[in-house]
Amino acid sequence: MIERDHPDLSIGQQCALLSIPRSSFYYTPQGETEQHLDLMRLIDVQFLETPFFGVRQMTWHLRNEDHAVNEKRIRRLMRLMGLMPIYQKPNTSKPAKGHKTYPYLLRGLRVDRPNQVWCVDITYLPMRRGFLYLVAIMDWDMSAPRSS
């Protein structure tokens, strides 16, 4: 979007119009160092053998092979490679022992007007940095016309 040889606007003015720092225009990406590429190869080989290794286990493994690494570097490289460990996630849908099961209160109830019955659902969405909760609240009016 920025023209180097614009007759009226300097590069600084064009960057200001686009609301980007001038240094961003001159920046050239460096790529990964040879040391990081070697580490990525080692991570890839180990991850194929043990796909349940997360950042901590991978760091521990590489340190045992005399590589000077920390969790921060391994986390960045594994994220760059798109590696996510495989592990059993908690099943929160199963009730705990002794948990009271409530009866279904709508059995046999005829829903024929708005604001008679409402339903709510909530789900957890993991994101790259943290998580979100998605909540849906709906009116169960069955007499409303449906689109198909």
Automatic annotation (TrEMBL):
InterPro entries: HTH-like_dom, RNaseH-like_sf, Transposase_IS3/IS150/IS904. It comes from the Bacteria. Residues 39-89 form the HTH-like domain. PANTHER family: TRANSPOSASE INSF FOR INSERTION SEQUENCE IS3B-RELATED (PTHR46889), TRANSPOSASE INSO FOR INSERTION SEQUENCE ELEMENT IS911B-RELATED (PTHR46889:SF4). This is HTH-like domain-containing protein.
